[in-house]
TrEMBL record:
It comes from the Bacteria. GO terms for biological process: carbohydrate metabolic process. CDD domains: GH16_laminarinase_like. This is GH16 domain-containing protein. One of its GO terms (molecular function) is hydrolase activity, hydrolyzing O-glycosyl compounds. Belongs to the glycosyl hydrolase 16 family. Keywords: Signal. Residues 29-294 form the GH16 domain. Pfam families: Glyco_hydro_16 (PF00722). Residues 1-23 form the signal peptide.
Length: 294
């Protein structure tokens, strides 16, 4: 989740996920809609979408409760952000991440980015708040290899001060990624997806670890219109990126040290790509996060 000026050199090419490619994979394509289920457990024996079988689920959050599992599964601060783990203006981020901006209800956790002045304990003032989830809590998950998957609806529901819809979607930078675990002193990062919402259908899938590598994809759907499944098979021999069960690209990059999962909804500060002056809020919702190993 470093801004795209740093991401571009690792890009292998742009892949168009066209209608015909989606049709060819219709057996595994996600059909949308929030699939609310009883309890906080995934379906028995559930496998990653489209990434083979033989996986054992090791950790999950189905977000089917009434509050985020702060301190048990998740923490709201990460060592990736130098201002108390919650702000990182040096990385073109406008937001300070507060737990209160993550809410869990109706089978999903929703992150809300809000245009509001907030003074951090450091004294730095931010113009936006948002929130992040990272799996560093005592009942979280730390790993080097495995399959991580999230079913989510990316930047959506942009609103102005009167509560009206804002058509200009720019200014948001949601991601689902990993970051080096506590005590690891080397760059270990896998970005299962990054979206810059000025081009909402264009995602960046990147390994910043080991041999590195990544690709860009033009989706055949609007990822803010409904839920879709984003996953990565991270192994010693490389990383494979999947969307709705379709293998998008394989790269040689793979971590060499332990990592934790992060979900976020950053607010992007690059001039011309920052939020429309009318935009007061935006959302991202997550149906679940699941992690498997073989
Ligand atoms: Ca759910």
């Amino acid at each position: 989740m470093f801004h795209r000026k740093l991401v571009l050199p690792a890009i292998a090419g742009v892949i168009a996920l066209t209608g015909s490619l989606l049709a060819a994979h219709s057996a595994t394509a996600d059909t949308g809609g929030l699939k609310v289920q009883a309890g906080d457990n995934p379906p028995a024996g559930v496998q990653p979408v489209g990434a083979g079988t033989g996986w054992n689920i090791k950790w999950w959050d189905e977000f089917n409760g009434s509050a985020v599992d702060w301190g048990t599964k998740w923490n709201g601060n990460s060592s990736a952000l130098p201002d108390a783990g919650r702000g990182n203006k040096g990385n073109q981020q406008l937001e300070y991440n507060l737990d209160r901006n993550c809410t869990e209800a109706n089978g999903a956790v929703t992150m809300t980015a809000k245009r509001e002045q907030y003074q951090a304990p450091s004294g730095t003032t931010y113009d936006w708040t948002s929130c992040l989830l990272t799996s560093t809590a005592s009942g979280g998950v730390t790993f080097k290899y495995g399959y991580m998957e999230s079913r989510a609806k990316l930047t959506y529901d942009l609103r102005d001060a009167q509560g009206g819809t804002v058509a200009d979607t720019r200014g948001f930078w949601p991601g689902f990624w990993t970051w080096q675990a506590s005590g690891v002193d080397s760059w270990q990062e896998t970005d299962v997806y990054e979206q810059y919402s000025d081009r909402p259908r264009h995602l960046y899938l990147t390994s910043h670890a080991g041999a590195k590598g990544g690709c860009e994809v033009d989706l055949g759907f609007d990822p803010g219109a409904d839920y879709h499944v984003y996953g990565a098979d991270i192994s010693a021999s490389g990383t494979k990126f999947y969307i709705d069960g379709t293998l998008i690209c394989s790269v040689a990059g793979a971590p060499t040290e332990n990592t934790n999962i992060i979900e976020d909804l950053y607010v992007y500060s690059k001039p011309g790509f920052d939020p429309n002056p009318a935009t007061m809020s935006a959302k991202k919702s997550i149906d679940y996060v699941r992690f498997w190993q073989r």
